[in-house]
């Protein structure tokens, strides 16, 4: 009885800490089009790094939602959030999911497309 309740409670506790990522800077200024392309490439290849496709899909939906909806998505999917900004998460089976900052927020040196 305690094992199941304990691990679930820990997951719930971690998931409640979701917050907006800290500002970051890309190595060189990029445009919104380039950022979108980088994000699309990451999400297209992410399931090949391991983990469950459904969890990757939930994480993508969470990164594209506001914080309140993101919280609901990760809770519903059973995602255990290690880093409050979603950069490191685990599923209930212990598979690790690492998200780069560029899928979580925009860099401070984002340029307008020409």
Automatic annotation (TrEMBL):
It holds the Pfam family UBD. Residues 1-31 are annotated as: Disordered. It comes from the Eukaryota. Residues 16-113 form the DC-UbP/UBTD2 N-terminal domain. This is DC-UbP/UBTD2 N-terminal domain-containing protein. It comes from Carya illinoinensis (Pecan).
């Amino acid at each position: 009885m305690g094992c199941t309740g304990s691990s679930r409670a820990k997951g719930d506790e971690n998931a409640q800490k979701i917050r907006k990522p800290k500002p970051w800077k890309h190595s060189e200024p990029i445009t919104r089009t380039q950022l979108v392309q980088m994000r699309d490439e990451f999400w297209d290849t992410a399931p090949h790094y391991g983990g469950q496709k459904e969890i990757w899909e939930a994480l993508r939906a969470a990164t594209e939602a506001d914080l309140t909806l993101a919280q609901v998505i990760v809770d519903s999917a059973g995602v255990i959030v290690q880093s409050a900004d979603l950069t490191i998460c685990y599923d209930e089976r212990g598979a690790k999911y690492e998200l780069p900052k560029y899928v979580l927020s925009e860099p401070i040196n984002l340029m307008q497309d020409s």
